[in-house]
């Protein structure tokens, strides 16, 4: 392996700094980092255990776009070695490498990325600042390099409860990585109140479970309620056999669930509104407020393959151009492929449903008492596991397809390219991950018919909810997918990078020994050799996707599982340090990329927050027992005595004659199988509840949006001050020659 160490002279750095519209300092400021939780604890007079003193804190600056002819007005312009930061030098060098044409054909032969894809070079990366391990335990903090500071004060498991040093992360890895960790830390902090409230609601469920009259009636009913078979070859069963499962369902299905659903809907809106403010503050502090509109350049691949040029209406510069009509045609064609893949996901979901039905039938007719008694539950749990494996396999296939389609669509900037890619994958993953929980929540057990007149799908009788009800089944589905996926992901993030690093190091050392034909390998490898042994950083897409999917689970289906925010909080505490360790210890240093925020992920989060309100309204109205119980309390008996009998219908006379036995089933139907007046009254109440719930929550959410300004007043003042200083510093009459 041969190495080329690249650097750029001062004149090249200055030329490209102006070309890339890099922002450089005019005037230093004290670092004005402010964290809301630190302010709250300070006002309450409580010691803040999350605060930590991190050495070499980067200064804050008033900045403006670099101009070579105004060089003397920039702070530190007399020190050529330190004027441009390390990350800015990396950006300049990468821009040169990414835009240099190396072949005669203009079609593709441009940039270092194509050279890497064609194996001309095996790698191209900026060097880390040195080793991440400390030279000794007694080393002075000020003597540590940036990588050692990040390892000691950020990627260290002992710092799991400390604030992240965001300015250090931004200085070393760039704005795009820093925004991800800023958002992840902010989201994790906001999960704390949600987890506390969710745990209290769950504990209230435990208390209610032991004092629930319908649960006591079921447990004491013995052979009073003989229930109709749940599938074609399933046996009749006693309602008292589901005593434990029914009680478990009460953990999630009670009045506190309504409060928690409203709380989480408003929590999601308030969290996103405050993130907007945080994003605006960070974007200004990190000099990227105008990045997407003014400063972002076209992608090198786009520049190389665009068929024509056009004048940019904002900057006035001539830029490569791809006709909108052609792009829209390609996007439309790509959308057809996405729809086809979604149809495949739906087919897999249907196959999992059929699997559950068939397994339930096979177990019920097996003759083993333990299998017969738990047929529905075993089929449901194994179906959830099968569904999880389908999800993981289909995800891998689709992501490769989405990359190809997005490249083909010819997006001008990296931000637009990533937004298009993210949107495609998210739509697919949303259907992939949420189709099964949506089916259990809103369709399973709703269209089954009644004894003697069951509804069939593909020749198989439609699935009924398990004896304990669909809500307990949904909670189980969420825990399997959400917690199962988190455990698998965290194991992958711990084990796979370590194994890859070990294999890469082993392969490198083996090849070096072979090359030196038995000569002793140097004890101390050169920095580029050490960096080459590390793994390639493949972006933050998977990390964002994992967190956004988690956000969906804790908001869309929170009525079914109040403990979801707690599991998410515990996972995220681990996730932050895992991701930090991977970046600092296991990966080559990525080229610092600029960003204005978390991009399209924010708009996806907003859509999920709105969808959560609608989902929880329908979940409480149609899947939960809350409204039927409330109806019975007000109309018949406030103590709920007799509710079990009220909620069960008698099998029609035709079915009784045909089978020479009578049985009961869950429904509000008359003896002839038609819907009873109670059913229609409850349907009206359910629809009224949905409308009322949505209107109240959306009204309060809109009020929160209006009351919380998107940009803090302090940031607006700083922006005006910065513009004034830039105007003063760069005015022609201020420059002396």
Task: Tell me what the structure shows.
The chain has helices at residues 10-19, 36-44, 86-99, 112-117, 146-153, 166-173, 175-210, 213-220, 243-250, 255-285, 291-295, 300-305, 324-364, 369-373, 375-408, 414-442, 470-515, 527-532, 541-556, 564-586, 600-623, 626-635, 643-647, 653-659, 677-707, 713-730; strands at 23-29, 60-65, 226-227, 237-238, 308-311, 318-321, 449-450, 453-454, 456-457, 460-461, 648-650, 664-666. Helix 7 (175-210) runs antiparallel to helix 20, helix 8 runs antiparallel to helix 9 (243-250) and helix 13 packs parallel to helix 16. The model is unreliable at 518-522 and 733-737 (pLDDT under 50). The radius of gyration is 31 Å and the shape is elongated. It has 26 helices and twelve strands.
User: What's the pLDDT, averaged over the residues?
Assistant: 83
Helix fraction, binned, reads: 55-70%
Shape from CA axes? elongated
* Structural class computed from helices and strand pairing: mainly alpha
**Percentage of β-strand residues:** 5-15%
The termini sit apart by 51 Å
In angstroms, what is the radius of gyration? 31 Å
As residue ranges, the low-confidence spans are 518-522, 733-737
Q: Sheet bearing the most strands, described?
A: 2 strands, antiparallel
Count of DSSP-assigned helices:
26
């Amino acid at each position: 392996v041969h190495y080329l160490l690249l650097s750029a002279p001062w004149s090249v750095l200055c030329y490209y700094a102006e070309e890339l519209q890099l922002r450089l300092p005019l005037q230093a400021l004290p670092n004005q980092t402010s964290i809301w939780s630190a302010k709250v604890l300070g006002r309450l007079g409580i010691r803040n255990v999350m605060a930590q003193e991190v050495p070499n804190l980067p200064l804050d600056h008033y900045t403006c776009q670099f101009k070579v002819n105004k060089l003397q007005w920039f702070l530190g312009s007399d020190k050529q070695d330190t004027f441009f930061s390390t990350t800015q030098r990396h950006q300049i060098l990468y821009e040169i490498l990414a835009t240099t044409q190396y072949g005669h054909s203009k079609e593709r032969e441009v940039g270092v990325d194509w050279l890497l894809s064609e194996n001309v070079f095996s790698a191209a990366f900026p060097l880390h600042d040195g080793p991440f391990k400390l030279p000794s335990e007694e080393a002075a903090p000020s003597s540590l390099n940036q990588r050692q500071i990040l390892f000691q004060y950020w990627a260290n498991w002992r710092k799991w409860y400390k604030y992240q040093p965001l300015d250090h992360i931004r200085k070393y890895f760039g704005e795009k990585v820093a925004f991800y960790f800023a958002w992840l830390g902010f989201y994790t902090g906001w999960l704390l109140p949600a987890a506390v409230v969710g745990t209290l609601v769950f504990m209230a469920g435990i208390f209610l479970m032991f004092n629930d009259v319908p649960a006591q009636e079921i447990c004491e009913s013995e052979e009073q309620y003989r229930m109709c078979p749940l599938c074609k070859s399933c046996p009749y069963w006693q309602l008292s056999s589901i005593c434990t499962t029914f009680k478990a369902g009460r953990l999630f299905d009670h009045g506190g669930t309504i409060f928690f659903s409203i709380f989480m809907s408003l929590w999601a809106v308030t969290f996103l509104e405050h993130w907007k403010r945080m994003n605006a503050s960070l974007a200004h502090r990190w000099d990227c407020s105008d990045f997407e509109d003014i400063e972002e350049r076209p992608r090198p691949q786009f520049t190389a393959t665009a068929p024509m040029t056009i004048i940019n209406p904002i900057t006035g510069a001539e830029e490569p151009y791809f006709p909108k009509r052609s792009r829209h045609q390609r996007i439309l064609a790509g959308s057809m492929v996405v729809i086809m893949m979604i149809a495949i996901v739906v087919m897999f979901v249907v196959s999992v449903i059929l699997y559950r039905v068939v397994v339930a039938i096979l177990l019920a007719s097996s003759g083993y008492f333990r299998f017969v008694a738990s047929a529905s539950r075993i089929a449901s749990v194994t179906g959830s596991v099968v569904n999880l494996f389908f999800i993981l396999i289909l995800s891998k296939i689709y992501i490769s397809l989405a990359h190809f389609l997005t490249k083909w669509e010819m997006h001008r900037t990296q931000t637009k390219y990533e937004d298009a890619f993210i949107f495609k994958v998210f739509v697919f993953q949303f259907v992939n991950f949420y189709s099964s929980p949506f089916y259990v929540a809103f369709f399973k057990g709703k269209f089954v018919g009644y004894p003697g007149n069951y509804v069939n799908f593909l020749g198989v009788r439609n699935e009924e909810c398990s004896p304990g009800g669909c809500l307990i089944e949904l909670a189980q589905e969420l825990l399997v997918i959400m917690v199962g996926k988190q455990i698998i992901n965290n194991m992958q993030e711990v084990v796979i990078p370590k194994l890859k690093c070990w294999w890469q190091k082993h392969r490198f050392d083996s090849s070096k020994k072979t090359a030196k034909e038995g000569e002793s390998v140097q004890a101390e490898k050169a920095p580029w050799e050490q960096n080459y042994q590390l793994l390639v950083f493949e972006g933050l897409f998977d990390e964002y996707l994992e967190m956004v999917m988690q956000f969906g689970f804790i908001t869309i289906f929170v009525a079914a599982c109040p403990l979801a925010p707690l599991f998410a909080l515990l996972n995220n505490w681990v996730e932050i340090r895992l991701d930090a360790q991977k970046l600092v210890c296991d990966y080559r240093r990525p080229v610092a990329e600029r960003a204005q925020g978390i991009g399209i992920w924010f708009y996806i989060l907003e859509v999920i927050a709105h969808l959560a309100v609608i989902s929880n309204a329908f979940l409480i109205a149609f899947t939960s027992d809350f409204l039927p119980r409330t109806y019975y309390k007000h109309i018949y008996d406030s103590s709920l005595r007799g509710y079990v009998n009220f909620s069960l219908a008698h099998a029609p006379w035709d079915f009784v004659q045909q089978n020479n036995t009578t049985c009961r089933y869950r429904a509000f139907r008359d003896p002839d199988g038609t819907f009873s007046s109670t059913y229609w009254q409850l349907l009206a109440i359910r629809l009224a509840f949905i409308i009322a719930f949505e209107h109240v929550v959306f009204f309060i959410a809109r009020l929160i949006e209006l009351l919380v300004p998107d940009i803090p007043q302090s940031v607006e003042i700083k922006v005006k001050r910065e513009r004034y200083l830039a105007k003063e510093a760069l005015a022609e009459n201020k420059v002396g020659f």
